[in-house]
Design goal:
about 725 residues; six-stranded mixed beta sheet; about 20% helix; alpha/beta; globular
Amino acid sequence: MKLKLLTLAMLCGSAALLTGCSDNDNEVPIKPPVKEQQTDDDKQPVDDKQPTDDDKQPTDDDKPTDDDKPTDDDKPTDDDKQPDEPVIAEGTLLELRIMETTDLHANLMNFNYFSNKADDKVGLVKTATLIRQAREAVKNSVLVDNGDLIQGSPLGDYMAKVKGLEEGDVHPIYEAMNTLDYDVANIGNHEFNFGLEFLDEAIDDAKFPYISANVFKDDGDDDPSNDVPLFTPYLIKEKQVIDKNGDTQTLKIGYIGFVPPQIMQWDKANLEGQVIAKDIVDMANHYVPKMKEEGADIIIAIPHSGLETAEKKPLAENASYYLSKVDGIDAIMFGHAHANFPGSRYAGLEEHGVDNEKGTINGVAAVMPGFWGNNLGIIDMTLEYGADGWQVKDSQSTLQPISITNPDRTVTSLAVNDAQVENASMTAHEETKTWVNEPFAKIADEVNSYFALVNDDPSIQIVTDAQLWYTQTIVKGTELDGLPVLSAGAPFRAGRGGPDDFTAVDKGDIAYRNVADLYIYPNVLKVLKLNGAEVKQWLEMSAGQFNQIMPNSEDAQVLVNTDFPSYNFDVLDGVSYQIDVTEPARYDTKGNKVSDGNRIKALTYQGELVTDEQVFLVATNNYRASGGGNFPGISGEKIVVDSPNENRQVVADYIALQSNKNPETGMDPSADGNWSFAPVEGANVVFYSSPSDKAAAFSARFAHITPLNKTTDDGFAIYQIDLTQSAD
């Protein structure tokens, strides 16, 4: 495959808007299931047919055809056993270490492409050293990866959008991972961001097999009984292990993987009509008994899915908790949530069967090792052989970090760079560094997201202005021409990845790394047609970003709800409004109505109050337009402009256009102040932001924001905000 690619505004200026800048590589015919890449330990090739009750897993030497599938009569009986087959004594103990990486997001090197400097808090190059050490320390170990590999850093973008992959090319991620002897890998939701064809080409050189049990080919017949999996749903691999007596045993380890069904919303443009996604737990209940029937001694689930203990809903995104109740699953190596388990985020869940010290969920061993390679997840499991075969006797889950952050914010690395991973990554790393630093425009003032959660902010304004400009251009001369246009943008980098995870772009020359800093996802622009009532509920959902504040209270109250992801805090430009945080939030983080709160006040368009019946076009991205974030009333049925252009490309085009109009100083990135907080009297309100000197200096621009020169235990700087004043 050879992708036709663009480098940003430099290769696709505003003149391309009406003709289409992109070749739209997302629209590709579905390819056959990705072939399993076998290691020496593999005993089972990919079978792209959904297993039936009669199916057995074939061996390397016996790959079945449709005419010679094994039947029940072919299964071995006791009489078929080899006479020298060893007998395992009851009570025999065996120790197994299970290691996991997850959510690497194309962070191979210990490097931040946005700041253009080394960063020892990230990178597989560091995690690899811990993997080798952890493996060397025990007799028996396996290693799994849990997806979200090929997207998320400029290196991932460079490979997908600029350099591309031809048949026979090896993606640098797999060049690096192939040095680490992974046993199996699971598909994450971001694997689909660049389309199925690129995914197929990327992973076909992995020297380890891929699994995913809940994604199927879309055959269009509405008959689930004949659905064919897109990937191998599960594997059972024989592992030669040493028991506590020093004897060699053969352990049959089953692996089964899952991805959030929401991929059908988040990547609708890439997947609709080609695949379908099913409920994670339903597929676990379908396949796990088959795995036990086929001889799996233990079963390791690898869900790219977080942990929630609320009552399960169909097609749940975060289903790891519910998997712990599926009989037969012995370990859960989970991810997706960019969090640590065991960890403080999951404290206080004992009543739900979550042991945050031991690392178990309803007694099932579990681990989630953060993101970007910042931790290696480990489950140390003791197995005991008995009448029912190998059973889990005990387990302990731990996280091994690649670094620690000191009280003074300096970072101490806990792992040297792994030479093999570094060598495998270096060419792509250097090419990415060159690409991301090529200037193509100028901006007249610095842009950052230090206060994007509490102020109308330039980092969002640039995005919303670009989307507004693009939408107004492409609807000219259509039946949508003349409708008022709004634009939605959110702060993607506002501390979710830690106290250093903020956008910061200096004034002057701007390069691709700066655009990727402003808009970190490869989303595609979509336009919805909504009425005023739906616009207001959109903003009510966004206002869940804030905790309820009590007026006239001397106690310090934290303004920002850290459980609400910042990428769901949409600012709508084109209208003006206030947010009254003394009211309760109307919706929770999942879009469920939890109160009659009415936080959005004085919602106006061009000076007039917005009416419920008023019609608007709203520019956003494919994630939000397809229902991502669970915003009330927002769904793909309301899309009226299905643009082929990425939001990030639109932002780059807009910056270049505005910069060319002012070649001396560049584009003015100032925010227009279209939203603010409704005044709150007598409240002591604080929020957390970057501990950097730049952030403190930037706060001097705002009379209502004051640094307190204190930090949280997590290293965030504490600021006070005066809600009796408006942002200037």
